[in-house]
């Protein structure tokens, strides 16, 4: 199971502002990025985000003020992003998966998430259209960013997911899905690819839309304790 449901991705992104553990540490990390940015969102960026996301002008301005409060330098670092995930998986190792998610959102590949990248990611995972979500899922699996997915890349993402699944939970998985290798092999087989073949974005999206089993295999059903923590954060 591999993406972690889209809704819960949004919860983790939103946790930047509302989840209490490690808040001071996150501020320190962000502060290293530079001096505090202007508290006003530029008109150009505001219009762009209004056009391309579900958020209103008032919502965007509120998000921006909160964003700058947590990250005075105007950037989310990879370390901070990993810290958010670590908060939700205290007994596991979400580092590798968090890095892959971060990479997929860091569209300009500068090693940080600016406000635009953050809001687009939040919009995509909480309210984006199915096609947009699947395009993002493809970007997540396309580890080297070359426009195709190899079997090795499938294996890499699946391994990062299994790092977050406690050993006890892994034993409850179906026999043909209870290791990263088996899960990756099953995903690959659904696409009917040979060992050294590649999956294009179109093939990936069509395959997932046509086959609910593939969709299930590329997602991670979070344990109840994680869902409870997400619910706790909302209150």
TrEMBL record:
SUPFAM superfamilies: EF-hand (SSF47473). The keyword Kinase does not apply. GO terms for biological process: visual perception. GO terms for molecular function: calcium ion binding. SMART domains: EFh (SM00054). Keywords: Calcium, Lipoprotein, Metal-binding, Myristate, Repeat, Sensory transduction, Vision. The keyword Acetylation does not apply. Pfam families: EF-hand_5, EF-hand_7. InterPro entries: EF-hand-dom_pair, EF_Hand_1_Ca_BS, EF_hand_dom, Recoverin. Residues 93-128, 129-164 form the EF-hand domain. Belongs to the recoverin family. May be involved in the calcium-dependent regulation of rhodopsin phosphorylation. Binds three calcium ions. This is EF-hand domain-containing protein. It comes from Gambusia affinis (Western mosquitofish).
């Amino acid at each position: 199971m591999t993406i972690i449901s889209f809704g819960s991705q949004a919860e983790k992104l939103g946790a930047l502002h509302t989840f209490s553990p490690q808040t001071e540490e996150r501020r320190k990390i962000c502060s290293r990025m530079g001096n505090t940015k202007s508290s006003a969102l530029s008109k150009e960026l505001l219009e762009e985000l209004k056009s391309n996301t579900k958020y209103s002008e008032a919502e965007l301005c509120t998000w921006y003020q909160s964003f700058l409060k947590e990250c005075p330098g105007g950037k989310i670092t990879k370390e901070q992003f990993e810290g958010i995930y670590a908060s939700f998986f205290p007994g596991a190792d979400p580092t590798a998966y968090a890095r892959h998610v971060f990479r997929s959102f860091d569209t300009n590949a500068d090693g940080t998430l600016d406000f635009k990248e953050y809001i687009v990611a939040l919009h995509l995972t909480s309210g984006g259209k199915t096609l947009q979500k699947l395009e993002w899922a493809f970007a997540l699996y396309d580890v080297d960013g070359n426009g195709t997915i190899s079997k090795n890349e499938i294996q890499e993402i699946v391994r990062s997911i299994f790092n977050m699944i406690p050993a006890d939970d892994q034993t409850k998985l179906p026999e043909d899905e209870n290791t990263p290798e088996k899960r990756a092999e099953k995903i690959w087989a659904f696409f009917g690819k040979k060992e050294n073949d590649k999956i294009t974005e179109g093939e990936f999206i069509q395959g997932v839309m046509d086959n609910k089993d593939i969709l299930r295999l590329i997602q991670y059903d979070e344990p109840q304790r994680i869902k409870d923590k997400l619910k706790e954060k909302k209150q």
